[in-house]
Amino acid sequence: MSDSGPSLPEITIKACVLGVVLSVILAAANAYLGLFAGMTVSASIPAAVVSLGVLRLFRRSNVLENNIVQTAASAGESLAAGVIFTFPALVMLGVWEDFDYVWVTVLAGLGGLLGVLFTIPLRRSLILEADLRFPEGIATAEVLKAGQAGGSGLRQIGLASLAGGLFKLGESGVGLWSSTLTAAGRVGSSAVAFGSLLSPALLSVGYIVGLNTAVLIFLGGAANWLIAIPLCGAVGVAPAGAAEMTAAELAGATWSQYTRYIGVGGMLVGGLWSIVKMRRSILVGVRSGLRAYRGAAARGEAVPRVERDVPMKWVLILLAGSAVPLFALYQVFVADVFVSLPMAVLMLVAGFLFSAVAAYMAGVVGSSNNPISGVTIATIVAASLLLVLLMGSGAAGGPAAAIVIGGVVCCAAAIAGDNMQDLKAGHVLGATPWKQQVMQIVGTLSAALVVAPVLSLLLNAYGFQGHASAKDGALAAPQAGLMASVANGAFAGDLPWAFIAAGMGVAVGVIVLDEVLAARGSAFRTPVLAVTIGFYLPVELSVPIFLGGLIHEAIRRRRGRAGAHEPPGRGGVLFASGLITGEALMGIVLAVPAAVPEWGGWMGLAGEPAGAWPGAVLLAGLGGWLYAAAGKPTTPSAQN
C-alpha cells in the first residue's frame, strides 16, 4: 500500500473499543503468566487474529483497522511485563504491603508513556535505516495481509498456525514430551551443559532474522555455557551447595548468579555504542520533526502520510510534562530534593538509552525473546551506584529507590520494544505512524488503569514464593526476586562486578571486530547487542534460533542456484508467521487453566513426559515443512 492511493480508515470507533478491551484483557492475562512462569506471551499476533475475526462481523473493515487494534492491544501485554518484572520486588523488600493503586498506576502509566515517546525519534533510524528484521512485526503484517486477502497465503498461515498450536498443546498442555532437549555432565569441579528449547516459534524467529544474526546469538550463548561456566568451576567460582547439585543444576545456578552478568555488562557498553552509532539518525529525526511542525509547507502533502509521526514539539512537551510528576513521586519516596532530582534526571537518561536498546533488540530477536530483565538489571545497577554516592551504602531506602527507577525504565523499555514491532508491521502495511503512536498511548494508559488491582488480587490469592505472603500455589515472580537481590547486592557491594566488567570487555572486542569487518566491506557483521543477548539468554533459546537461521541460508542458496527472482523464502515467511501465531495463541489459551486451576484438570493427562525426543522429531519435521513451504508460490484472492 502506498501513500499515493486513497487513505483507508484507521482509528475508528470499533477499532478503538476492541483495542482497549484486548489491551486490558491481555495485560491481566500476562500479569499472571509472568508472575507464575517468569515469561510473557507477545500479544501482537494473537490480537491481530482476534481483530480479524471480530471486525469481519462488520460490513466494512480493512487491514489498517486491524493493525490499529493489535497496536493498542499489544501495548497492554508489554506494560504488564514491565510492571511484574519490578514492582513486586517492593513487596518482597517489605516497602509495600500491597500494591497501592495510585503508585502503581502513575509509575506504570508514566513509564509506558515515556516508552512510546522515546521510540518516536527512533522510528526512522531503526525501521528505515538499520538492517533489522523485527521478526514479530513482519509476522504480524503477514498475518494481517493474508487474513485480509485470503488465497493460498492465508491457507499456508492457517496450516502452520494449526501445527504450531498443536505442538504447544502436546508439549505444555497434555505433557506428551519435555519442552527442552538437554545434555549435561561434570568435568572435575566444573559443569558443562547444553540444550535446545523445542519451540516452532523460535525456529521461525531464526528463519526470519537470517543466519548472520542467528549465528551471533548462538555464539554468545555457546561461549557462555561451553566456556565461561566451565571456567568458573575450574577456578573455584561456584554457587552455594554446588557439591550437591546435578551437572545441569550447577550450570544453571552458575549462569544465573555469575556468568549471566557478562551479558548485562555487554548490554551496558553495547547500548551506549548503539546510541552513538544512531546519533545522527536520531538528531535528524528530531530536527525534521520540529521543522515539519513549524513549517506550513511541510505540514501538508509534502510530508508523505506513511512518514508522519506525532509532531516532535508535542513529544518534547509530553516528555517535559512526564518528568515533573516523576520528580514529585520520587520526592515523596525519598523526601530529599537532592536525591529525587538526580533520580528523575537519571530516569529520563536511562529511560531513553534503554528504550533504544530494547527497541534495537526487538529488531534482532523479537519482543517475546527481548531480554528486558537484563536492561532493567543494568538500570538498577547504575541507579544504585548513583544512590550510594547520594545516600550512602547504608541508606535504608536505597534499594527500594533503585527499584522505583528500574520499574519506570522497565515499563518504558518493554513498551519501546513492542511498539517498534508494531511500527514495523505498520510500515509493511502502509499505516500512518502518528495514528499508531496515538493508539500505543491509548493502549498503554488503558492497561495502566487495571494492572494494580490485578496485582493486588494475585498477591492476596497466591502470594509470592519465599515471602510472608506465600500461600498454596504461591507465584514464583522470578524476575522481581532477581531485581530485589540485585538492588540489595548493589548497596551491599556483593554483585559479581568482575563478570559485569568482563562483559564490558567482551562488548568492546566485538565492537572492534565489527568495525574491522565494516572497513573491509564484509557482508558478515557482528552487531554487539546480538552477541550480548546470547550471553544473557539461556542457551536453550539460542539453539532453535540458530537452526532457523540455517534453514533460511539453505533456502537462500537453493534459490540462488535456481535463479529465482522472487525474494528468498517469501512463502517461508508466511509459514514461519503461522508457526509463531499458533504457538502464541495456544500459549494464551493455556494460561487460562493455569490461572483457574479447576479448569485445568485435563492438563498433564499424559503423565510423565516421554523425554524430549518426540518433540525433537516433530520440530525437525516442522523445519522440513518450513523449507518446503519456502519454495511454493503464494497467490492472494481478490481483496475483501
List keywords for this structure.
single chain; 640 residues; mainly alpha; two-stranded antiparallel ribbon; 23 helices; disordered C terminus
Task: Characterise this structure.
A hairpin with a 2-residue loop joins strand 1 and strand 2 (190-197). The protein starts with 12 loop residues before the first helix and ends in an 11-residue tail after the last helix. The chain folds into two domains: 13-120 and 309-495, no CATH class; 152-266 and 499-629, no CATH class. The protein has 640 residues and is mainly alpha-helical. The protein has 23 helices and two strands.
Q: What topology does this entry show?
A:
Blueprint: H1 13-37, H2 44-55, H3 63-84, H4 88-92, H5 101-119, H6 123-129, H7 135-149, H8 151-174, E1 180-187, E2 190-197, H9 200-209, H10 211-234, H11 247-294, H12 296-299, H13 312-334, H14 337-365, H15 372-391, H16 398-429, H17 433-461, H18 478-492, H19 497-519, H20 528-536, H21 539-562, H22 570-595, H23 613-629
Antiparallel strand pairs: 1-2
Helix pairs in contact: 1-3, 1-17, 1-22, 2-3, 2-7, 3-16, 3-17, 5-13, 5-14, 5-16, 5-17, 6-11, 7-8, 7-16, 7-22, 8-22, 8-23, 9-21, 9-22, 10-11, 10-20, 10-21, 11-14, 11-15, 11-19, 11-20, 13-14, 14-15, 14-16, 15-16, 15-18, 16-17, 16-18, 19-20, 22-23
